[in-house]
Amino acid sequence: MDDKNLTIGDIAAELGVSKTTVSRAISGKGRIGEQTRERVLEYIEEHHYSPNVVAKGLAQNKTFNLGMVLPGDYNIVELPFFQNCMLGISRTASSHGYDVLISMVTADDITQLERAVTNRKIDGVILTRTLTDDAPMKYLKENGVPFVAIGSADDESVVQIDNDHQTACRELTGKLLECGIKRIALIGGDERYIVTRSRLSGFEDAFTARKRWNGEKQIFLNVDGSSEVEHIVDGLLADRTECIVCMDDFLCGCVLNALQQRRIEIPEQMQVVSFYDSTTLAYRMPSITSIRYDVEELGRMACELLLKILDDEEVKRRTLLGYEVRMRNSTRSA
Amino acid sequence: MDDKNLTIGDIAAELGVSKTTVSRAISGKGRIGEQTRERVLEYIEEHHYSPNVVAKGLAQNKTFNLGMVLPGDYNIVELPFFQNCMLGISRTASSHGYDVLISMVTADDITQLERAVTNRKIDGVILTRTLTDDAPMKYLKENGVPFVAIGSADDESVVQIDNDHQTACRELTGKLLECGIKRIALIGGDERYIVTRSRLSGFEDAFTARKRWNGEKQIFLNVDGSSEVEHIVDGLLADRTECIVCMDDFLCGCVLNALQQRRIEIPEQMQVVSFYDSTTLAYRMPSITSIRYDVEELGRMACELLLKILDDEEVKRRTLLGYEVRMRNSTRSA
DNA sequence: CTGAAAGCGCTTACAG
DNA sequence: CTGAAAGCGCTTACAG
């Protein structure tokens, strides 16, 4: 285990070659005799040498660290989305020789991100959600830090990757309408999240695509917390609404609780659908019709995009990933 | 924004002093004239200089990065516990000039951790759970990497911090027994997690403390997934069990679903309690009696312990944090 | 109180 | 194909 602090210099001395040569054998850059390279590589193998990445970074002006920006708000941070995302990012980064450094930010405090940047701890950044008027994004642009955003953004200059929330929501809503639903409601969270807006658009697209649909739709945004949901649910029950579309699994959980408490049968008296299909709702009875995204894949691809950018490769400005509509027992089958 | 790449050398040249002097003004180490220091500091302030932490690290053989080890298993990673932990760690690290680098490991794959260590990317590590026969722990010990474990471990040489799960579970179980419960069941997850064992001990302590209790208790460990829970619940219903103690909120969610599906009234026909009090169960009706831990605080203190160790300060081998028993409507009141 | 110099462990023109 | 030397941006004995 003493090998731990072997340096390129030690190896050079031991083998009677120069540090330059050792460095070349390792990196594969520059011409070097086949013989010499093998000798060096063998020695390295035997003695478990592994290069000091920090020193390498200093010389190359890199850190081999990627920043991952996470929302540090309570509640939100708990959404499984971010963890699954992290899994994908972490694995990909790791397999490319990078590590992942986290920065938790809130709407009005991005100091952790600023520290990571000004301290030159990271080569690039992955944003894990997008907002209208996105402070981290603004900061990164101003400071010329390479980044990719998971989520969508109006700004065409930012490299973004997202599931196609709008189409997903349109398709799901469409299916519901096809089943003859006349009264439908949409409940969503913070309107500053782009994803909230995308889903809203998809929801509305479904109606404009069906000109003959003459029912009633209701929309509730910026819904936050259980008591507000209860109030809304009471209103919807009074209105004889047939279906509630929930924009995330947390809100859906609240809706389900409210319905259960009021002894409303699902789907007979009220249908319910949600997004994400996370474990938050797994095993709920009845099973919940939901959109499913491959969030780990999303993280993986975001990471690969960033790595390409760091390698000065060209990348698509916008990548749209798919989704899957899973019809289950919380809705009447088509 | 050009200030970005200011170096200590630039400042020295500009001010007509040596790099040594600039360094001393910044670090506060070594004697330096009051006048000179102020001049340097002023210049730095004006030009938004911020030192290259990587270079500093190379010179001092530090990275100012802390490793955080997270379980990379699906499902488990989704437990809000780890996110809240991360919040505490991240904030504390940040306020001490450190960043947090994540390594996701599974029971049989700790390569991400190994990479971070052999690449010398981190100064120390925080483990976020403990297992019997803990691979990351073993690796860190063998390689002399400073670390603290969130969770308990038999090994007296490891610095560990944990909520007092055993006492918590004993107290909660005790309260239930005081209410006259005669048939009680415990459902828990993976037995290799120390926390599962601690809670089991606490559960049993409650009975030994009440010698005259003559009821029936059942214990199910290594329970994994919803169908197994359903099967257990059916058995318990047949047995006329009065109360189910769930070791985590995920299992509790499964239990609640199974009961709801079977039209069992809580707490009239079955009482239910859980641990963590996470948002997974928030807003469930009836509200769930539960233990509550301050997980962010746990992360914060773990991080502070590690920072002290890195500073060569003495620390307590074992820190036990409190808990709160929250009696709610899923149990009959005492 | 201050500075010249060596060093942290790498990389990379440049010269041979 | 190989090496001496300078450099990445800091710190830190050592000397004055």
Could you give the topology of this structure?
The structure is a homodimer of 334-residue chains.
Chain A lengths: L7 H8 L3 H9 L6 H14 L5 H8 L4 E7 L8 H16 L3 E7 L5 H8 L5 E4 L7 H8 L4 E4 L8 E5 L1 H14 L4 E5 L6 H15 L7 E5 L5 H13 L4 E4 L2 H13 L9 E5 L13 E4 L2 H16 L7 E4 L2 E3 L8
Parallel strand pairs in A: 1-2, 1-3, 3-4, 4-5, 5-11, 6-7, 6-8, 8-9, 9-10
Antiparallel strand pairs in A: 10-12
Helix pairs in contact in A: 1-2, 2-3, 5-12, 8-9, 10-11
The first copy, chain A, binds a DNA duplex (16 and 16 nucleotides) through helix 2 and helix 4.
Concise structural overview:
2 copies of one chain form a homodimer. Chain A is α/β, with parallel strands linked by helices and 334 residues long.
Overview of this structure, please?
2 copies of one chain form a homodimer. Chain A is α/β, with parallel strands linked by helices. Chain A has 3 domains: about 1-50, lambda repressor-like DNA-binding domains (434 Repressor (Amino-terminal Domain)), CATH 1.10.260.40; about 65-165 and about 295-325, 3-Layer(aba) Sandwich (Rossmann fold); about 165-295, Response regulator (Rossmann fold, 3-Layer(aba) Sandwich), CATH 3.40.50. Chain A contains 12 helices and 12 strands. A 6-stranded parallel beta sheet of chain A has the order 2-1-3-4-5-11, with helices on both faces. In chain A, strands 7-6-8-9-10-12 form a 6-stranded mixed beta sheet, with helices on both faces. Chain A starts with 7 loop residues before the first helix and ends in an 8-residue tail after the last strand. The interface between A and B is large, with 60 and 60 residues. The structure holds a DNA duplex (16 and 16 nucleotides).
